[in-house]
Design goal:
By secondary structure, this protein is an alpha+beta fold. It has helices at residues 21-31, 36-44, 50-67, 120-131, 140-167, and strands at residues 10-17, 78-87, 91-96, 102-107, 110-118. The protein is rod-shaped, with a radius of gyration of 32 Å.
């Protein structure tokens, strides 16, 4: 009997996204634990600029799940299991200020990571399909002669009667 692993996840990550981690965390907190269609809707209507980057990562994670041949997962049966944002490298720039001084500019980056897993309903359906016994097919060689004999008998019975009735 086949067993379905319940701890499998699919992951996608975007590194060095030009946004601060603090701003990106506000968006990822909105979609954590949501289904993929619901998360896509939330990101599509979000007014934050980093929502487009998070949406790209979500799209990539769904594509990873659908393209893996060992999983055969559908994008609608997934939910966002984990979503987190880490700080990336900070680009340091300087701007001239008054009286010959400089003012530092910190251009922050972040790493966005999303992990998708199957919903409990999809896991239950997969477990039912795995537990359900498959119907065995009969070999074609054994089934073909029986069908041919039945057709031949019907043709023999119908042919002489119809020819005799038409002659009389």
């Amino acid at each position: 009997m086949a067993t379905v692993e319940q701890d499998r996840t699919v992951r996608a990550q975007a590194k060095f996204v030009r946004s601060s981690a603090r701003k990106a965390r506000l968006v990822t907190d909105l979609i954590r634990g949501r289904s993929v269609p619901e998360a896509r809707t939330i990101l599509a209507f979000s007014t934050r600029a980093v929502a487009k980057d998070v949406e790209k990562v979500l799209h990539s994670a769904v594509a990873n799940a659908e393209s893996r041949p060992d999983l055969h997962w559908s994008g609608d049966d997934l939910y966002v299991a984990t979503a987190f944002v880490d700080e990336g490298r900070t680009l340091k720039r300087f701007r001239p200020r008054a009286r010959g001084r400089v003012g530092p500019i910190k251009k922050r980056t972040c790493h966005i990571t999303l992990e998708l897993a199957r919903t409990p309903a999809a896991l239950a359906a997969a477990a039912e399909a795995a537990a359900k016994p498959r119907r065995q097919r009969a070999p074609k060689a054994a089934a073909a002669p029986a069908a041919d004999e039945a057709v031949a008998e019907q043709v023999e019975e119908q042919t002489p009667e119809t020819t005799e009735e038409t002659e009389e």
